[in-house]
Specification:
Trna Endonuclease, Chain: A, domain 1; alpha+beta; 5 helices; globular; 139 residues
Length: 139
């Protein structure tokens, strides 16, 4: 048996991936996936290094099948394919909620592009998450 690269390994590596794995099932609740994403540490790749708490980075943005820009987000560092690391070698961890809070209005996001567990959210879906999901301390 040949071993698959880590980015396409079918075994969930964390809670978010377990939610992503069950997301396509008929009894799945998409709210569970969104909440897990918002509350999980997720990873961006960037050509920039983080110099301090206030430093800005330019994360990797890909084009989806329609040619629209999507922010590449990964559920685990092992899900980052080598081709992305060649373009943006720095893997940076942050909360999913922070990504949603800071993403622009014209940008969608793709979780785990090319990996076993992933999905895409268009800009309208990102706006809906911003509108419908508030932090507990914002209620």
């Amino acid at each position: 048996m040949t071993e698959q690269p880590a980015h396409i390994d079918p075994s969930p590596l964390n809670d978010l991936e377990e939610k992503l794995a069950t997301g396509g099932q008929p009894d799945a609740n998409p709210v569970d996936v969104i909440l897990s994403f918002l509350n999980s540490e997720v990873y961006l790749v960037s050509s920039d290094t983080v110099e301090g708490e206030d430093s800005q980075v330019e994360p990797l943005v890909l084009s989806n099948s329609d040619g629209d820009p999507v922010l590449a987000v990964f559920s685990h560092p092992n899900r980052v394919d080598q081709q992305y690391l060649e373009a943006a070698p720095n893997v940076l961890g942050t909360q999913g909620a922070a990504i949603i809070a800071n993403i622009g209005d014209e940008l969608g996001l793709v979780i785990n592009p090319g990996a076993a567990y992933g999905f895409e959210i268009n800009p309208e879906g990102v706006a809906n998450i911003k509108r419908d999901f508030k932090r507990a301390d914002e209620q």
